[in-house]
Design brief:
three-stranded parallel sheet, elongated, five-stranded mixed sheet, alpha/beta, single chain, 164 residues, Alpha/beta knot, Ribosomal Protein L25, Chain P
């Protein structure tokens, strides 16, 4: 069954209006029809069986809790520098598909990419992480967080830190 990340806490019997993006994704991209079911994920990673309402697909009804999927046992936190072009988008997408739990951007000494519009960049990367989560059928959407200096990123917690 298809998986879609929905906003807010979910519970059986709840009726929710879909956002324009979610409606477009379900009806135009997945070509779902009224009455069809899919798995809806809330922000906490809980899964529910959801049915598309017959009113032109504008809303959904939460039917029942679904079997929880599997998340990796080891929580991997990935530190990424600001990469050029669409390489950062690609790395975020693939790292989410591989099971990374958290992605943190850091500023490297030799980075050519400018740090302007960082909020827009992080929002875009968070959306890419959400789409990759739906595609690979994970339960939780990894958080993409803001820019840290390299030294602070290296000291931010236990674990391995590979640097060239």
């Amino acid at each position: 069954m298809r998986r879609v990340v929905l906003a807010g806490p979910l519970q059986p019997g709840l009726a929710i209006q879909l956002s324009a993006d979610q409606r477009h994704y379900l009806i135009n991209v997945l070509r779902m029809r009224a009455g069809e079911q899919f798995i809806g994920l809330d922000q906490d990673g809980k899964a529910f069986v959801v049915q598309l309402e017959p009113s032109e697909g504008r809303g959904i009804v939460i039917e029942q809790a679904a079997e929880a999927g599997r998340e990796p046992e080891l929580a991997v936190r990935l530190f990424l520098p600001l990469l050029k072009g669409d390489k950062l988008d690609f790395v975020v997408q693939k790292s989410v598909e591989l099971g990374v739990a958290n992605i943190t951007l850091y500023s490297a000494r030799r980075a050519v990419v400018k740090e302007g519009n960082l909020d827009k960049k992080i929002a875009r990367l968070q959306r890419i992480a959400q789409e990759a989560t739906q595609q690979c059928r994970r339960q939780l959407v990894p958080a993409v967080s803001g820019l840290l200096p390299l030294e602070q990123a290296a000291d931010s917690g236990p674990g391995l830190f590979a640097q060239n």
